[in-house]
Amino acid sequence: MTKKYEKNIKILKALSEVNRLKIVDMLSSGEKCACIILESFKFTQPTLSHHMKVLMDSGIVKCRKEGTWIYYRLDKELCDEVLDFLNEILK
User: Fold this and answer.
1) Residue 84 CB neighbour total at 10 angstroms
2) pTM for the structure as a whole
3) Rounded distance, CA 50 to CA 35, Å?
4) Domain holding 11: CATH number?
5) What is the pLDDT along the chain (91 residues), one digit of tens a residue?
6) CB burial string 2-35: b at 16+ within 10 A, e below
7) Reduced 3-state DSSP string for 42-89
8) Is 74 exposed, middle or buried (0-12, 13-18, 19+ CB in 10 A)?
9) Residue 8: which H helix or E strand, with range?
10) Which domain holds residue 25?
11) What does DSSP say about strands 32-33 and 61-66: parallel, antiparallel, or unpaired?
12) What does each C-alpha distance from 3 to 11, 26, 50, 59 come to in angstroms?
């Protein structure tokens, strides 16, 4: 049971920053190139890389590389697990 809490707290911590939450919102409509994500924010590419690393380390975001481009997407299965977890504890 403790493992379930630890797994979810890592994801919830990643989502507790406003820009990362906005990135997740963007990715909820489908896979996006890093350049498209960056256009929506007023921060630098290294800052985006930091946010994406936090999201990927939590497991909620996955990426693939195509040439020099990096594409990000949500792990929908993990998103569903987090929602189920929250529904379970907030009943």
Assistant:
1) 11
2) 0.91
3) 14
4) 1.10.10.10
5) 688 898 899 999 999 999 999 999 999 999 999 999 999 999 999 999 999 999 999 999 999 999 999 999 999 999 999 999 999 999 8
6) eeeeebbeebeebbeeeebeebbebbeeeebebe
7) CCCHHHHHHHHHHHHHHCCEEEEEECCEEEEEECHHHHHHHHHHHHHH
8) buried
9) helix 2-14
10) 2-89
11) unpaired
12) 13, 29, 26, 15
Q: What is the tally of structural domains in the chain?
A: 1
Specify the residue for token string 């409509």: 29
Cβ-Cβ contacts under 8 Å for 79 (sequence gap 6 or more)? 60
DSSP state of 29: T
d(CA 72, CA 64): 7
Nearest to 52 by CA among 63, 42, 41: 63
